Amino acid sequence: MIKAILIDDEKHCRETLSIQLERYCPQVKLLAECSTASQGLQAIADYQPDVVFLDIEMPVMNGFEMLGRLSDITFEVIFTTGYDSYAIKAIRFSALDYLLKPIDKDELMKAVGKISQRRHNPLAQQLDILMQKLNHKPVVLQKIALPTLEGYELVPVVHIIQCESDGNYTLVYLKNGKKFLISRTLKEIEELLEGQGFLRIHHSHLINLNEIIRYVRGEGGYVVMSDNTSVNVSRSRKDILLKLLAR
């Protein structure tokens, strides 16, 4: 049985999620429903939950501020929010789960289904990544959580050389020679790494501009990366790449 707490300032949202959990996630036992972050902090101390369904936007103290009040987070977090925002991008960057309201039952079941698999994964580090992203910490300090088939790999962004599309998955190549197959599309990775010094130079390749050692001219040309791999540049992306390299 998974012990859960629900924290949301909107009564109808609490009621709806409670019904959905009872109907579609019988393995979840809802121990408390809280309308404020302060109540949530007390319920966490009282019940020691396995998972907290946490609304992001709440008056007085939002969900992120509430987590910042905790010295030790030993439970899983599934964020809930009414709209896609910059906060959602930060959550994706840390590979934590979130549910958009109105909550879809299939997405709820999927999120709950992951909980038991993630119990021994680096949640604290994922939350650190989330807070760094929200607080606009320098790129050099940022890591990204990569969801692999075995769990998560927490990797400094600057260690990524390139990302290559593999259908609904992406191969991520690192400076140390390792590569990971992650369960994200290249488009999703591109969105997560926006503003981090990466460029999509081909429909199948996203590269770290700082890891280019040579550009070879041609119809589109190709780049040689720091690991000596060559990546073709599409004609439509050639001008953008050359402008960035000229800077």
TrEMBL record:
Keyword Phosphoprotein on entry: yes
PANTHER family named among the record's database cross-references: STAGE 0 SPORULATION PROTEIN A HOMOLOG (PTHR37299:SF1), TRANSCRIPTIONAL REGULATOR-RELATED (PTHR37299)
Protein name: Response regulator transcription factor
GO MF term (any one): phosphorelay response regulator activity
Residue ranges constituting the HTH LytTR-type domain according to the UniProt record: 144-247
Every Response regulatory domain range: 3-116
Keyword tags: Phosphoprotein
InterPro entries from the UniProt entry: CheY-like_superfamily (IPR011006), LytR-like (IPR046947), LytTR_DNA-bd_dom (IPR007492), Sig_transdc_resp-reg_receiver (IPR001789)
